[in-house]
Amino acid sequence: YMNQMADDRQTHPQDDIITALVHAEEDGDKLNRMELLSMLFLLLVAGHETTVNLIGNGTLALLQHPDQLEKLRQDPTLIRSAVEEMLRFNGPVDMTTNRWSFEDVEIGGVTIPQGELVWASLLAANRDPAQFPDPDCFDITREPNKHIAFGNGIHYCVGAPLARLEGTIAIQALAQRLPQLALDVPADSLEWGTGIMIIHGMKAMPVRY
Fold it and tell me: Model's pTM, two decimal places?
């Protein structure tokens, strides 16, 4: 699909980011096809899938905690704090990029030997009781809330401000415009995606309103 789209933008340019990438050139150097497809895939996953799951997972958290949903409806100024708690409580990204252990290290009674490949879970880190009091409690007024849903340091997500903005607008609209919004199936019957282990989101969330 992406290959065909790149071919189409090559011959029929449009005013969009795909056309810009296809025709991007600096000092005579252009992206080769593999670089181009890799960039398009990254945009699809990082720019769409994660935000969709932020909104979906966040909505689920509110529906499972009606007291928090009502609190948000009564005080819309809590929306920014609510989105931060959604990111912490059930964020859209699970695993980080992989790392290798430089030396033997023990975590939680388990030894990770030197040279071992490690996938760190952002979801687990955001439920760390040493950092978050009562970490399994969904509290839209939580403060401070120093979650790492967007990573940290030099690999901090460059799209974080846009994701926060999209989540804020979508969640606030759902909370205010759909007062009867509710799950239409038991929460434990919801099916979670298993395709890309980095991404954390549902395949579908049937609701009624």
Answer: 0.83
